[in-house]
UniProtKB/TrEMBL annotation:
UniProt family annotation: Belongs to the polyprenol kinase family.
GO cellular component assignments: endoplasmic reticulum membrane
Source organism (scientific name): Gossypium mustelinum
Keywords, sorted A to Z: Endoplasmic reticulum, Kinase, Membrane, Transferase, Transmembrane, Transmembrane helix
Record-linked InterPro entries: Polypren_kinase
Statement: the UniProt record of this protein carries the keyword Ubl conjugation: no
GO MF annotations, alphabetized: dolichol kinase activity
Subcellular location(s) of the protein: Endoplasmic reticulum membrane
The protein's name: dolichol kinase
Amino acid sequence: MVASPLTAMNGERAVVFFFVFRVLSSLPLSLLPHALSLSLLSVFSLFVEIRADGCLSLFKTRPGASSGIMLGAVTLPTMMLSKLIQLSRAFSLQQIEIGELEHMTMQFWAASACCCGVLIFLSILMWRASYNKNPHFSCSVWDAKFSLSCVILFSVVCCISLATISHTGFNTALKLLWLLCHGFAAVKLIQHLLNTFPCCASIGEALLLTSGLVLYFGDMLACTISKVCRLLVSPELVSIRYGIKRSEIGIIIQGVLLGLLIFSAVFKFVIHLWEYFWRADNSESRQNKEIRRSLIFFASLGFNMIVVAPSWMMIVLDFDVHPILWIFQFVLSEPLKRLSLCIYWLGLIYASVLRFYNISKNSKIERILLRKYYHLLAVSMFLPALIYQPKFLDLAFGAALAVFLVLEIIRVWRIWPLGQLVHQFMSAFTDHRDSDILIVSHFSLLLGCALPIWMSSGFNDRPLIPFAGILSLGIGDTMASMVGHKYGVLRWSKTGKKTIEGTAAGIVSVLAACSVLLPLLASTGYILTQHWFPLLIAVTTSGLLEAYTAQLDNAFIPLVFYSLLCL
């Protein structure tokens, strides 16, 4: 039975619809096909989410969370469209070249293809489940027709849009094939994630992660292919041109993540071979096996980080020196500022972690409230660096992400001698949204602060955009939780814990922080173009999303806030 629009519309879906509508209402006429495609994607995702609520669980998702399919499906494409709106303004002012605009257009369609592919996959799974449960289920035929109509219309709009930026029909066909590969890769990856890490994420959270990973590594692959073609063939004969001019820091971060991805696959393969050939040897003690396994781990990690990843970096971008030496040169180019910042960060992290770890073991303070102090720690760490050393902060975020990934790999695989120690330490800061299989909260907080900063590189006519993650998570989300926990009485819903008082405190605190931050940015040379009414809409929308969503707010709220600030 299909729910009526009024009964199907809950608070989270209403906020998501308003978020999409706000972005669509800011589009120029040149982006009309993109608006139509995002509208189709929103309606299709709502339809799939409603059907998923009435269907048997197809995957073991995070307990206590809704499916979040609509929010997960529209967040990344809407963010790309907001960035495209910003770049359209820059192109009209002749601040960027057409290549950068075309690159972002392909990123938008790639993100949309990833989400649309996963929605098609979920629709097929639910249609088969409904048919197997009741072969005479008449609604399943209507479901199939509606889904097919959305997919066909989306494909037609996509073809028309790509034809306008392609010079030949062959070029258009290549781009469509590239988008089809994105959709197929997203489907395979989300299946792998949900089956390998059960009960760790909702479908919407897995969809956001999947589309982000496919988009990011697809961009790396396309950039590599373009560079290799130019190296193998005379540049005058090669018409392949992909992407934009990339910074050394961006390439280094991509290379490190690529190295860790290759390392994980290679290490798993080597361990399986080792266990296959040496499993008959039972005379070796367990400790010796763990030591040998640990040596293989650290040796392969070092080889990938020193040889494999830098080799890719030097192929894609012409480094004059080894990328590791480039990092040292970059840090020492302003030694007083950057080394002082490192010392400040290390001292703050050591004091805070030691203090909060002892509190978490001996105190009865709720974990979710205790972890909000880390949000405040993020503000004190990242805000000064973002104002005075933004490029160095870009590099520091990449280094922190790499360290987090290595520590999580050590924890999951229990690598001797650090595996158990890291697991015990990280478990002190988990809550109901984490599991023993995978701890994601620290990743979501780091990426929530870092992604708006990374995305705002290049042209930026909205000075608050890089601060989207710090403001929404470090200030807004923290104040909402603290005030709501201590003073909250009026709840948004009967079953939820979020309160109106907490939401109001979060919105007011972000607006107050913006009123202080904008004059400070003006004093450092920023040209202020941020108007207060759009800012109020952005802050209120992200605050309401925090109040209504059951998803991992660290992942979604910064991206929604960033998207609205771009307008």
